[in-house]
Amino acid sequence: VRTWSPARPGRVNASRRACLIARFNFIYAQERLDAETLLRPFICDMEMVQRIIYVAAVESFRAAKMAFWKLKISVKETLAIDHVGPESLEVAVLDYIASHTDLYDVCCSVQEVICSMNMNPKLPCPAEVDYVVISCLIRELCCLAFSMQTLIPPLDIALGIDGELFNRTMYYRSFDSDFTAPFVAYHVWPALMENGAVIVKGEVVTKK
What we know:
By secondary structure, the chain is mainly alpha-helical. It has 2 domains: 145 residues, no CATH class; 50 residues, Nucleotide Exchange Factor Grpe, Chain A, domain 2, CATH 2.30.22. It contains 5 helices and 6 strands; from the N terminus they run H-H-H-H-H-E-E-E-E-E-E. A hairpin with a 2-residue loop joins strand 4 and strand 5. The chain is globular, with a radius of gyration of 19 Å. Keywords: Coiled coil, Cytoplasm, Lipid-binding, Membrane, Mitochondrion, Mitochondrion outer membrane. InterPro entries: MIEAP, MIEAP_C. Belongs to the MIEAP family. GO terms for molecular function: lipid binding.
């Protein structure tokens, strides 16, 4: 019989956190570029391609967090009936969801993201490009964002605004940026945050 250790939840959380951050970095380094390649036959403007992928990342986190919130309420109501043990109900709920990620209907979130992108006035209309072509990226981002909500504290992304002042502690400049420009023209990839602190820098393009 496994005995409960006060240090175990912390070790499990730290290990899961490290894996999720590594996954976030891999998506940025590889799967984001794969998605760019899939979009280029439909859209020749590289800026628009990068904007599409950034919006996909933001919408994926939004959809996954909403799905997590709904599932958490359901799981909490179920576990509260006979919860006993040294760990709090909140921790038990997060551990349960982390161990049963199959409860997450990621396909529903992917559909929500694509629908939201189709209605985004800043992106090309559905007649020009079918965002289903990057559904694999969206799915990976949704699963990642969902799992990040099981951490204590959870990880999230920073929401950028075009025209904001460039923050070197939060973002890298893209190679094609104007390095003397103080303002962000558009965002390429979001920064990863934890309790308001930057864990992984995002990427932006700065122009005068």
